[in-house]
Amino acid sequence: MENTLFDIQEHVIPCQHIREYPRGVKSEGSLRLALKQYTPITSKSENGITIIAGHGNGIPKECYEPLWEELLRSSNIPIKSIWIADCSHQGASGVMNEKVIGHDPNWFDHSRDLLCMINHFRDSITPPIFGICHSFSCSQFVHLSLMHPSLFQGLAFLEPMIQLQNPSKMSGLPQAAFASNRDDLWASRASAESSLRSSPFFRSWDARSVDKFLSYGLRSVPTAAYPISDDSPPASVTLTTTKAQEAWTYLRMNASPYLTDGKDDKEFFLGKDMSRVSEEGHLNNREYVTTCPSAALAFELLPYVRPSVLYVFGERSHINRPPRREDKLNITGTGTGGNGGLSQGRVECHVVQRSSHMMPLEKIHETASVLSQWLEKQLKDFEREQQFYKDYDGDKSVNDQTRLSAKWMQYMREPAGALRPTKSRL
H or E stretch including 347? Predict the structure, then answer.
């Protein structure tokens, strides 16, 4: 990062042992996680908020550094540190693991890897903790928040890929078609940069994020995918996240004949996270060749999300069209153990104008401004809850929480269905 706003530390830690899909790794070799810790230099605060961030598919974690800069400049609350890791099969993690990773990554493996990261750095990653994530990583953070409902104070979902419906038309090409067909080998770094800068995909990005992609999203050969050869001579460069891993992240594939009775081992082994009922256009329909069960499952988990949630959508998003926004807003936090949803003020929404699914890399200043205002409000909620538990006793113990209280024993003599006393609000 070419500035003095953050002290940046790089870390490498072990990933979660045992991946969800058997072909997620080629062998029992250990996977490692590459991550960065950003600590503000001029406003260090041990009592500040901690941010855990998540990247989009195929996007190096460093592309979000301009967003962290803008957030630090625009925020009135102290930030202790920001943490972000490349998924084990992407970015710097993917480079370290390229001889071990297989062809079947599971989105929620990263959820478990992040929990490992948080436990590993328990002395540095302290409450209040907020999640800020983009695209498919939003599904990962939904899953993480269900594994540990009290971990996050709040979650900011930037252009989330969380839904049942396939964003691709059933008559159109699959979501992974772009990644599968993109150029991924150039004769030199200069030719790669020239090609990517002229790409319509990058044309809408903020120049700072494009520069980060060119710095961290390209690597020199030889690689596992491109050893030195006539097609990939020594000066060649390729993508840091291989286009194969990017494509396999979008979709799973099962092109074998579908047995409708459901009693075939293959159907069971390959479809454990698929819907039992086939719905037209749904991402977890086992009748389709290509599916994306993690996005669908994350949607079905939304009612049980406990942290407060901020949705930030791109006005021109091809994924989060207005009906899909409403789907998420209407169910988030409404289930047992959830945050209460829109009606309780625990779910909020903002639409960034003239932006697409790449909104946090396009409209950096606007995104940071929305996040800053939301974080300030959430910090006040956290402080109010902290004060509540500081004052609250509960009358269930005595002797420094080691013995049962008289009130506890009183209710052990009452029927199991004893009702709480009522109190009128004055």
Answer: strand 347-352
